[in-house]
Amino acid sequence: xxxxxxxxxxxxxxxxxxxxxxxxxxxxxxxxxxxxxxxxxxxxxxxxxxxxxxxxxxxxxxxxxxxxxxxxxxxxxxxxxxxxxxxxxxxxxxxxxxxxxxxxxxxxxxxxxxxxxxxxxxxxxxxxxxxxxxxxxxxxxxxxxxxxxxxxxxxxxxx
Amino acid sequence: xxxxxxxxxxxxxxxxxxxxxxxxxxxxxxxxxxxxxxxxxxxxxxxxxxxxxxxxxxxxxxxxxxxxxxxxxxxxxxxxxxxxxxxxxxxxxxxxxxxxxxxxxxxxxxxxxxxxxxxxxxxxxxxxxxxxxxxxxxxxxxxxxxxxxxxxxxxxxxx
DNA sequence: TTTTTGGTTCGGTAACTTCCGAACTAAATA
DNA sequence: TATTTAGTTCGGAAGTTACCGAACCAAAAA
Lengths: 159, 159
Known about the structure:
2 copies of one chain form a homodimer.
Chain A: H1 5-21, H2 26-36, H3 45-52, H4 56-68, E1 72-77, E2 80-87, H5 91-120, H6 122-128, H7 130-158
Antiparallel strand pairs in A: 1-2
Helix pairs in contact in A: 1-2, 2-4, 5-6, 5-7
The structure holds a DNA duplex (30 and 30 nucleotides).
């Protein structure tokens, strides 16, 4: 059940990326990558320990965190006490929904900034006013793009 | 030169947001917000110390970091040794360019994941293949959206 | 009933981040 | 020439994060 050198390399590489994009601890990010790069049969707790070379307690904590965040899921087999972990089937949709939430946040922030500047720094705002507007329009287009994509994915996954 | 309660509230509120979205230390994030919410005349080193209630050394370090990151700039007045700090006129454009870089990164990551899964987990990939494709299309549309917005902003700012 | 399996929980620690104070510097002023 | 101004730089303290080992627990197996 050990990993090919190629997979090990990807786990580290994409792991670093996921630390920032998903705001996860290094170990959690690596586990998440393993789940995404693994077949539907999933991995057991022990396999994850071996692949990550991390301790039992750390694996337990981070697995439970990922479960709670809905990034991974597990299934069991009859007459087998072990849990088999894999990426949540909805993980890309969940990712997009997280993006949607943060875009909405960002739109609010931009609105607060432009509102403040247009009332308290009006002479500054007059000169640069168009740029914040273009920025906001960009954010709104992106929000639409996200909503449409989420809708399309829902359509596929609910059929 | 002290701040209105409204501005103080915004500095903290948007500051927390900027810590994550711009990957800045708390103090750096707050200084950046101050710059964005301030008139074109900018603020001096001492004013920033008073508003943030931070030490000289911390303000110095974080100001230089923000300058290096091109998020803020300063100007001087003849016969006045002080520097006047303000948000970089290009800060929204710079923000979008950072977004563009990370989108391009993300596209690469998604490509690596789908490539790996389609060769090593082909049976898994067959069932979920459409979703990663939609995801990638979403990223490409977003990249276009970003590039167009950056172009529009450049047009305004270079005129 | 004892042991093994498949974990969880807790206390601590090592490493990293963030900030501060004190000493320093270079230019301007007295 | 001495002092003030406008910062910079360095060593370290305090707080936070990420991980580990050891003790623990509940269910199943021996």
